[in-house]
Amino acid sequence: MGKIETGLILLLVLGALLLAALLTILLVNIYKSKFKKEQSEKADAVILTAVEKAKTIELEARDKALKVLQESEQEANRRRQDILREDDRQQKRRAELDHRLERLELREQNLNKRQSALDKRANEIEKLYADQLEELQRIAQMTMDDAKQVLMTEAEKEARNDMARIIRSIEAEARTEGDKRAREIITDAIQRVASEHVVSVSTSLVTLPNEEMKGRIVGRNGRNIRAFEQAAGVDVIVDDTPEAVTISCFDPVRREIARRSLGRLINDGRIHPAHIEKILAEEEREVEKAIVEAGEEAAFDAGVAGMHPEVLKMLGRLKFRTSYGQNQLAHAVEVARLSAVLAAELGADVEVARTGGLLHDLGKAMDHNTEGTHAQLGADFARRYGVNSRVVNAMASHHHEVEQESIEAVIVEAADAISGARPGARREDLEQYIKRLRALEEIANSFKGVQQSYAIQAGREVRIIVQPEEIDDLASTRLARDIAKKVEESMQYPGQIKVTVIRETRAVEFAK
């Protein structure tokens, strides 16, 4: 009984499970069919919407295409009308140009006819002029070239005489007034400066206490003199001069160092290579100090302040440089003072003139080491250390190597000439003096028309006698200027040289 109930229960349970499964399957199928129907309806709605949008887009596209087509046709019509109008204008212009061309051709034909008539008339006039000219030449018994030459000669002669007279009058007046004023200014400047004349020469002669010292200077097998020459950079000349030796060197500073060193060695008595080098080093330092002190003292004496130390040092080297026996540092100070006085008299810048005068020969302290003129070297050196540009121009132009840009530059040149040209300022040996006079006369004789020339007043003037039949009055003036210019270009001389041309016509007749 229990087993049967259990089996029935199991059967009931299984039946319930089976029924539940069947119900589940049925519900799933019902849901699937419902879902498919919904999806199908949605798809149909989407397709319908897409079709409607496509129709709408198609209609819009057709409208736009139609509109574009209409606009294109309108643009084409407009351009066609423009082309037609432009073609009409071109045709009208072409017709107008053809009409103008016809008128130009007609005018050219008329001009050709007129030109032919003018050419014919010109030929007749030329023939008539030639006939008249031939008749005039026959009457005057002179050709046209001869008459022209006579007329030109007379006109030139009259013009030359007038020009020479005017030039002489102007030069005489300018010379009278200019010389008078210049003498006043220069005399006043020299009197106010009243500088002491210095002609000290840096000697290279060293005196010895006795002849035995020469042997000690030379040393065994010449080792002492070779060591001294090599270390000092000089040549020591031991000759027959009694109790003296000569030191030779193109650099005055090195020569001064060697002179001082040799004097100390002679006084000390210890002359050997090691001691020589020591003494030379000490004297080199002493000379450098002396150079700096000399530059500062020169600037103080000239009244110039605020210069660069390197410029003062280079200026001090001029203490050991001479020109025609005139010490260059003393000359620089003298030129600075003269420049300041002249500038004050003429109303120029006194400080620029003073500084330019002090530094005008600065390049002479370096011209043995560098290529170039001393004016150019000094100007470049001063410009490098910030010296005033007007002072630099005065330095560079005091020998007319560059253009003078200010009155101060002219004043520096004049002061330089005054310092070098006044009596006793410079001296030169007899041989150089004779060579300079001979060169001056040779320059004068090299010009055409010069009969004789004489250098007088110690070479300060050259008088030239010309042939009067070759040189007239105007040519005499021009000859004097040409000779002076050639002397300036080809000669070196202190001060200035006066060129005087003398033209003399003599008429000689004998009474019988």
Proportion of residues in helical segments = 55-70%
Q: Which structural class matches the secondary elements? A: mainly alpha
H/E topology pattern: HHEHHEEHHHEEHHHHHHEEHE
Described by the principal axes of the CA atoms, the overall outline is: flat
Radius of gyration computed on alpha carbons: 56 Å
Précis, in short:
The chain has 512 residues and is mainly alpha-helical. It contains 14 helices and 8 strands. The protein has helices at 2-140, 144-193, 212-218, 223-232, 252-268, 273-302, 309-316, 328-346, 350-359, 374-384, 389-396, 407-421, 430-445, 473-490, and strands at 205-207, 235-237, 244-248, 322-323, 326-327, 450-456, 461-466, 498-503.
Question: What key attributes describe this structure?
Answer:
three-stranded antiparallel sheet, 512 residues, 14 helices
Please give a structural write-up.
The structure is a single chain. This protein has helices at 2-140, 144-193, 212-218, 223-232, 252-268, 273-302, 309-316, 328-346, 350-359, 374-384, 389-396, 407-421, 430-445, 473-490; strands spanning 205-207, 235-237, 244-248, 322-323, 326-327, 450-456, 461-466, 498-503. It has 14 helices and eight strands. Strand 2 and strand 3 (244-248) form a beta hairpin. Helices cover 70% and strands 7% of the residues. The chain is mainly alpha-helical and 512 residues long. The strands form three sheets. A three-stranded antiparallel β-sheet has the order 1-3-2, with helices on one face. It has a three-stranded mixed β-sheet with strand order 6-7-8, with helices on one face.
